[in-house]
Specification:
The protein is of the alpha+beta class and about 300 residues long. Helix content is about 40%, strand content about 20%. The chain is built from nine helices and ten strands. The chain has a five-stranded mixed sheet with strand order 4-3-5-10-6. It has a three-stranded antiparallel sheet with strand order 8-7-9. A two-stranded antiparallel sheet has the order 1-2. A hairpin with a 4-residue loop joins strand 1 and strand 2. Helix 1 crosses helix 2, helix 1 packs across helix 4 and helix 5 packs across helix 9. The N and C termini lie far apart (about 70 Å).
């Protein structure tokens, strides 16, 4: 069997994710006939059938499911290798930190201040992205370390938890539910999240295809919340830092807490990454210690 080519894997992954040759061809910027030929050649090369094709649908076989998992990993590794090589060859190396703006539990300024005094520190560069973009940035070699909300896609990554905090629902202050002091998920029936998913399904609700509204930052999200278009699940630290007259924050009894973690590639050997992880864990532990007396006095 000849070695697989990157081009073949990219074509296969596109078809496997779209489950439609026409959409996959459009995504790759090619025509459908050559894409179909590439997939047929790949199947002959491997000696297995990767897709079950009918006039109505395209479906992955068991062999296709296995190849999809490994092909994604291989393509991510190739992309990451190129990005990391370019970064390593830079004349001004930096520590690239991926995060979602405002999703840092209020720890980032303290972490960066303490990190700057470490002998292994490199100048930090913040890589801002959307919710859930950070693990991919690490795997693609676009970031060296990340602040992430768990649960996350942790393939190929190591992580350490920093803080765990409640998640509140943000809703329009005019919403009838805002008159209540505590809610449960069932109360949110009929309301949707930014992804278009039903809010009463919780944070694990699947994204509704084609329903995502354009909103790139918290300000835009809260603008949508104020109009009553959506509700939004936010960590308690985010709600404290974003008081808005038009938004009401309410606890949801059966909504799980969220954990902020620091994550990095499993094969990372950078002293700068190790220094940031060490500092972040120390700062988070100190904050938890300070918070304990306040929690005890609140529950006494």
């Amino acid at each position: 069997m000849n070695d697989l080519e990157v081009r073949q894997l990219r074509c296969f992954v596109a078809v496997a994710e779209e489950l439609h040759f026409g959409r996959a061809a459009a995504r790759l910027g090619t025509a459908q006939p050559p894409l179909s030929r590439t997939i047929r050649h790949l199947e002959r090369q491997l000696g297995v059938t990767l897709f079950e094709r009918t006039t109505r649908q395209v479906k992955l076989t068991d062999a296709g499911e296995v190849l999809l998992r490994d092909a994604r990993t291989a393509l991510e590794a190739i992309t990451a290798a190129a990005h990391r090589a370019r970064h390593a060859g830079s004349t001004s190396p930096r520590l690239r930190i991926a995060l979602k703006a405002d999703i840092d539990g209020g720890l980032l300024p303290q972490i960066l201040d303490a990190y700057s005094t470490d002998p292994a520190a490199l100048p930090p560069e913040l890589i801002l992205g959307g919710f859930g973009d950070q693990p991919k940035a690490l795997r693609d070699g676009l970031a060296d370390v990340a602040l992430v909300l768990c649960p996350m896609d942790d393939r190929g990554l190591d992580s350490e938890p920093l803080i765990t905090e409640p998640v509140l629902v943000a809703m329009a202050a005019t919403d009838p539910l805002a008159a209540r002091t505590q809610l449960c998920l069932a109360d949110l029936a009929g309301r949707n999240l930014l992804s278009g998913a039903p809010a009463d399904a919780g944070r694990a609700a699947p994204r509704r295809p084609g329903a995502t509204r354009p909103a790139s930052n918290l300000s835009e999200i809260f603008n949508l919340v104020e109009t009553g278009s959506i509700v939004f699940f936010a960590p308690a630290s985010v709600t404290r830092r974003n008081p808005r007259p038009g938004v009401a924050y309410r606890p949801v009894s059966d909504l799980p807490d969220c954990t902020l973690a620091i994550a990095w590639p499993q094969d990372a050997r950078s002293p700068a990454v190790a220094a940031l992880v060490r500092v972040a864990c120390t700062i988070a532990a100190s904050q938890r210690t300070q918070a304990e007396p306040q929690m005890q006095s609140t529950t006494a």
